[in-house]
Amino acid sequence: MLTLASKLKRDDGVKGPRASNPASDSTRRVSVRDKLLVKEVAELEANLPCTCKVNFPDPNKLHYFQLTVIPDEGYYQGGKFQFEIEVPDAYNMVPPKVKCLTRIWHPNITETGEICLR
After folding, report:
1. What does pLDDT average to over the chain?
2. Average pLDDT over residues 2-10
3. Alpha carbon distances (Å) from 27 to 7, 23, 37, 51, 89
4. Residues 31, 37, 38, 39: is their CA dihedral positive or negative?
5. Any bridge partners for residue 91, and if so which?
6. Residue 73 CA from chain centroid, whole number
7. How far apart are CA 5 and CA 86, in angstroms?
8. Domains, the chain, ranges and CATH?
9. Which of 38, 62, 64, 87 is deepest in the core (most CB within 10 A)?
10. Do the Cβ atoms of 75 and 105 come closer than 8 Å?
11. Distance of CA 57 to the CA centre of its chain
12. pTM of the entire structure?
């Protein structure tokens, strides 16, 4: 499992110790969520099965994307199911919000597409 602490330690080893730079303080800081998502999106795209496709409407916003699943076996074979995934700012402590955009009967998906995993 990826952790931010291990990623930062590895990055510090490559870049050297962090120095205080007044110019960098005035620029926008990258959030923890975005740092994690850069690595996790790369892993997602490398390990995604051929029955799934990821679409980023805005490539600069890794925290919002759509997933299309086309099962090739099982009860839902031949279907095409679209999901909307939004990763909150508190990601890693708060799970992503997933909504099914395709109308489907499933015990964990409401009629409006909210997904309940509890």
Report:
1. 82
2. 52
3. 22, 7, 20, 40, 19
4. positive
5. 94
6. 25
7. 23
8. 51-117 (3.10.110.10)
9. 87
10. no
11. 13
12. 0.70
